[in-house]
Amino acid sequence: MLEIAAGAVRAYYLFDVADTIDLAIAGDAGLESRAASELPLGSPTSSAYLQFPVPPLLVSLPDTTISGLHCSVRLKAYDYGVMSLRLSFDAAGTWSGLATLADRVRVDERIAEFAEKTLLRFCDEHANALDDRHAPLIEDYFIIEIERFAESVDAETLLSEHFTELAGLLLGERKRLAATEAEEALRTRFSYHEDDLTIVQWDTAFVYDRPESARAIEDILEFANTQLLELRTYDALLDRELDGIYKIGSEKPARSLRGRREAEQAEFLRYLIVDVLELLDRSSNALKVVGDAYYARIYRSVAKRLGLAEWQRQIDTKLASVGDIYRFLNDQARSRRDEFLELIIIALIALELIVGVATLLHH
Length: 363
Fold this sequence. Notes:
The protein folds into two domains: 3-225, no CATH class; 231-358. The chain has helices spanning 23-28, 95-107, 109-125, 155-161, 163-171, 179-185, 211-251, 260-284, 293-306, 308-362; strands spanning 3-21, 32-33, 38-40, 49-51, 57-66, 69-77, 82-90, 93-94, 130-149, 189-190, 197-200, 204-208, 288-290. The chain is elongated and about 120 Å long. The strands form two sheets. Strands 1, 2, 5, 6, 7, 8, 9, 10, 11 and 12 form a ten-stranded mixed β-sheet that branches. A three-stranded antiparallel β-sheet has the order 3-4-13, covered by helices on one side. The chain starts with a strand and ends with a helix. By secondary structure, it is an alpha+beta fold. A hairpin with an 8-residue loop joins strand 3 (38-40) and strand 4 (49-51). Helix 7 (211-251) runs parallel beside helix 9 and helix 7 (211-251) packs parallel to helix 10 (308-362).
């Protein structure tokens, strides 16, 4: 069995808490900003960078013990309204001990409860930095990181001799998996050098790499999950708004003579479309992987594994529906205004005729 000299199980709990977070206000409150908008990846000679046009803010919270497990706590805030709480548990020891720890971290509700309470308390303390705060939508992700084994192991050996164990670790399965299921679990995998290996699943990843490269990969995984959370948030928002629109439509309300009611509804939908597009654009452009095909490939594969494109297509379809309703309401409002103007003209003509007739009779 493999012996792990240095490693960790990292639990990420991501919360969409507001439309936007004013990082300047949060920074003034004592958070530590990334030193620069570019984080060097790979070796010191690498020209590749992970670029955050608006650098996320970091804060290291005190270490704690949850369910008898000691962990370090770190929070990261993104300007597009997402906060990510990371709990890191030391995983040095045996492979079976690593698997047991990973399973426990994933299923222990007290760990998730601690994360939520910590995040909500933090939001309460920094409420003035949150614009349009709302009930949080939550996403979790787990990364099993190994910095080094007690004895040197390369990626080929890991895959050839411990294939089913790796698959079981990622899926949380202790019973031996079928070969086809194990292959599917390890399908999305990457190696840059002979002695590193990254495997990505939809809710868990395995990262065996040097600390600086592992940090970059974990930043990419964390960021992709913030995108998933944003897409889920706006998909749910559009669902609610569409349900409300359909409900109003089914009630057949009285027509507004001047189209004012329809115009107000259309204006609300216009703002909704603009807000969703603006915030989605902000989150999708919050990270750029420049100059390194390996990390860019990892990001694209992670995005595919998380189904970001499918979520985006759903949102695009719903935005198109909202756009159609907006145009319909706009046309209705214009039609009501035209009808109202026609009535005014008719009334004026009638008034002019009455005045004319009254004048003739008077003479």
